[in-house]
Task: structure prediction
Amino acid sequence: MAADASYPAEATAVLAVDSLRMTYPTKTVLADISFEVRPAEIVCLVGPSGIGKTTLLRCLGGLQIATTGSVRTHGSALGGTPRHMSVVFQDYSRSLLPWMRVGANVALPLRAAGVGRSERTRRAEQVLGEVGLEGTSDMYPWQLSGGMQQRVAIARALVDNPRVLLMDEPFASVDAQTRFELEDLTLRIRAETGVAAVLVTHDIDEAVYLGDRVLVLSGAPATIARSVDVDLGQPRDQLSTRAGHRFGELRSEVLREIRRY
Amino acid sequence: MRHVPLADPRGLADASPAPARPDGDSARPGASGTTAPVIVTRTTRRALHLIVPLVLPAGLLLAWYLTSRGSTALYFPPLPAILADLRDGFAGGAVTTNLMPSLSALAQGFGLAVLVGVGVGYPLGLTRGGRAVFGPILDLFRSTPVIALIPPFIAIFGIGRLSEVLLIAWSAVWPILLSTIDGVAGLEPGFRDTRRALRMSRWLEFRLIRLPAAAPRIMAGVNTATGIAITAMVAIEMFSASQGIGLYLTRAQRSFDIAASFAGALAAGVLGYAVSGVLRLIERRWLLAWHYEAQKGKR
Result:
C-alpha cells in the first residue's frame, strides 16, 4: 500500500484500486481488481460467499497486503489503516473493547492519534449524538443492544473525520428492523458528512438500497464482473424505494450477474 | 404496614388490591404495603446469602469448642486456650514480630512474581517460537515441589529474608507466567484487527487491548499462585526465618506448646483465606469488574 503524494485532485476519487491481485500459496483469490471511489460515494461489493469480498476490503484498509497492484489514497500508515479511512467490522462484540466504556471506545482512534483528553471527550460525545446515542458514553458496550453497539462502532469509525468508511457486512449481526435503521443511518451520515463508503454485503437488496454503485465480484480468481450504477436518486426510503419498479430491475440485474457463475 | 408478610412470595397478591380500593387516599398504608413485601423478600434473600456460608464454619467451631471444653489431653487442648494463644501471638504488639514479617515478605515475593510472570509471559505469548523453546523447562520448574527447593535456596541466598522473598516469588511465578502466555496468545483475531484499523502503537495496544484481554486468564493464574505462595512462605519460615508465622509454628512445636501450634496453624489458614479473599475482591470489584458484569449480561 503505497502512499502517493502526487495523487490527482481530490474531486476525482478518494480511493483508487489499480490491478489489485491477491495470491495465496495454493490459489489466487483476487485478480485484476480496479475501481475508484469518488467523494461521498457509496460503493457496495456483492458476490457469492467465499469469493473474496472481505479479503478485498481488508486490502483496501491495509489490514492485509495485496500481492500486486496498488491501493492509492491520501496518506498512509505502515502496517495499518490510513488515517482518513475507518473500518467497521461485522462483529461489534469483537471490535468494541468490553473493558472500556462507550465514550472511551469511540475516542480510541483519537487516543491512538495522540489527541488530548478533553478534545477526545468532546468529539466522542459529538459523534455519539450523530448516531443517536446521546448519554451512553459512561455505559459499557455490552450493556447496549446489538444495534446500538454497531452504532457505537460506526461512531468510532466517524470520530476522526474519515473520508472513506470501509464496512464489512456491518449489519449482518442485527435483526431486520435494526438493519433498516442502520442502513438509513449510513445514508444520513453520508449526506451530512460527505464520507464515502465501500460496503461489503451478501444482501443484494441492501446493496441496491444503499449503493450509488454495486460491484459484483465473481469467478475464480474473483474479478469485478459487473459494475451496476444505481440510478435511484436520493433520498431513499425503505418503503417506497424498495417497492419501486426500478429497484426490482436493478436487483434482478445484480442477482443475474451473481447467478451466472 | 398492617400485614407485611415476611418473605412471603405471595405477599404481592395479598397487598395489591389495596390501591384499587374506592376510598383512595384513606387506604395509603395499604399502598405502601404493595412495595414492602418485595423489599423484605429481597433483604431476606440477601441476608440468607450472607448467613448461609457462615453456618458450617460456625457449627464446626462450636463443635470444636464443645468437644474440647475441659479437655486435659495433651494433644487436644481446649479451644479457649488456643484462641488465647492466637490472641497473644497474632494480635496487638505481637503482630509486628509474628505476622507483619510474613505478610511483607509475601507481598514482596508475590509482587515480584506478578511483575516477572506478566513481564516475561507477555513477550513469550506473542511469539510462537518462544513458547516452544521455553515450554518444557517451564513445566519442569512448575512441577518441582517448592519445599524441595528450600535447602538450595538457603544455600545460595542465605538464611533470612532474601531467601524467603525469592522462594515465594519462585513458587508463585509459574502459574502467573503460564496463564499470561495463554492469555496473550489467545487474543481474539478481531481485537488484532481493531488495533491495526485504529493505528495503535505497540505500547497502546499492550495497555488498552492485549493486557486487558488477557487479564481474566492472568488473574486465574494469580489466584492459583496465592495458595502456593503462602505454602512457600510458611515452609521456608519454618526452616530459616528469624520472625513470622513459620517461626512461631516451629517454636511452638519445639517447646511442645500444642495450643500454640494450633494457633499458628489457624493463623496461617486465616491469613491464606484473607489474602486470597482480598485479591478476589479486588479482581471482582475493580480489576475485572467489566468481565464479571459482561458475563452476567450474557446469561
About this structure: Residues 28-68 of chain B form the longest helix (41 residues). The CA atoms of residues 97 and 243 of chain B lie 6 Å apart.
